[in-house]
């Protein structure tokens, strides 16, 4: 019995019965003499798992077999998905201001709270979790606890943050050391630490 091609399978059984590779195969259409559409689809899927729908034109066009037209079509499709299909409860963290908007619950606390925002490959928020609660002038932060949540969420990147009850948002020497340690640990784990934000009632800064 001949195996159904992705388009035939979609028509007969519905789109939900197609694998990720088959869906990408449909978008790609045909391959060329050097590489098949199925192989191109597999390579794109690897990139999707790493980057999510935030894949750039340059990244996609570097895949063998992806010409200007196919690359542009897929990038346009991802952009439409971001604009119209993104769940309302999954905000995108594009910059520091977007991250700070998720930290209102700790800005006026009387103790220090250390928070991790885990993000997927498209910078969509997966979770916002307090991982440490310290004293007025100290938070005991260990990379193991920070990245345990990121690994559990299969995050592509994280933003870490904590509050300064004193109101002074300037990073302490300890804050700078913590930031560096977390970024180094993130490089080893393949989970990028985008920034370390310090918030207070009236302001914030990023390291």
Please provide a written account of the structure.
The protein folds into two domains: 6-84; 96-206, 3-Layer(aba) Sandwich (Cytidine Deaminase, domain 2), CATH 3.40.140. The model has no long low-confidence stretch (mean pLDDT 84). Strands 2-1-3-4-5 form a five-stranded mixed beta sheet. It is built from eight helices and five strands, in the order H-H-H-H-H-H-E-E-H-E-H-E-E. Helix 2 crosses helix 3. It is an alpha+beta fold and 207 residues long. A hairpin with a 2-residue loop joins strand 4 and strand 5 (203-206). The longest helix is centred in the middle third of the chain and has 17 residues, at 68-84.
Keyword list:
single chain; alpha+beta; Cytidine Deaminase, domain 2; 2 domains
Short description:
By secondary structure, this protein is α+β, with helices and mostly antiparallel strands. Helix content is about 40%, strand content about 15%. The chain folds into 2 domains: about 5-85; about 95-205, Cytidine Deaminase, domain 2.
Question: How would you summarize the topology of this molecule?
Answer:
Blueprint: H1 6-13, H2 20-28, H3 37-51, H4 57-61, H5 68-84, H6 96-100, E1 113-119, E2 125-133, H7 143-152, E3 157-163, H8 173-189, E4 192-200, E5 203-206
Parallel strand pairs: 3-4
Antiparallel strand pairs: 1-2, 1-3, 4-5
Helix pairs in contact: 2-3
């Amino acid at each position: 019995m001949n195996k159904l091609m992705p388009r035939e399978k979609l028509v007969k059984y519905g789109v939900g019965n197609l694998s990720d590779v088959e869906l990408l195969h449909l978008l790609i259409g045909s391959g060329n003499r050097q590489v098949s559409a199925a192989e191109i689809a597999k390579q794109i899927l690897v990139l999707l798992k790493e980057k999510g729908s935030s894949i750039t034109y340059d990244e996609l066009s570097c895949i063998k077999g992806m010409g200007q037209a196919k690359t542009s079509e897929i990038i346009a499709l991802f952009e439409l998905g971001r604009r119209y299909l993104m769940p309302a409860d999954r905000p995108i963290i594009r910059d520091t201001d977007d991250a700070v908007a998720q930290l209102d619950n700790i800005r006026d606390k009387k103790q220090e709270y250390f928070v991790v925002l885990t993000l997927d490959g498209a910078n969509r928020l997966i979770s916002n979790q307090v991982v440490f609660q310290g004293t007025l002038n100290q938070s005991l932060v260990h990379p193991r606890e920070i990245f345990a949540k990121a690994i559990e969420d299969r995050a592509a990147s994280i933003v870490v943050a904590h509050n300064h009850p004193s109101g002074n948002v300037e990073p302490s020497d300890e804050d700078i050391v913590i930031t560096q340690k977390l970024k180094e640990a993130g490089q080893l784990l393949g989970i990028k630490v985008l920034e370390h934000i310090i918030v207070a009632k009236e302001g914030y800064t990023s390291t």
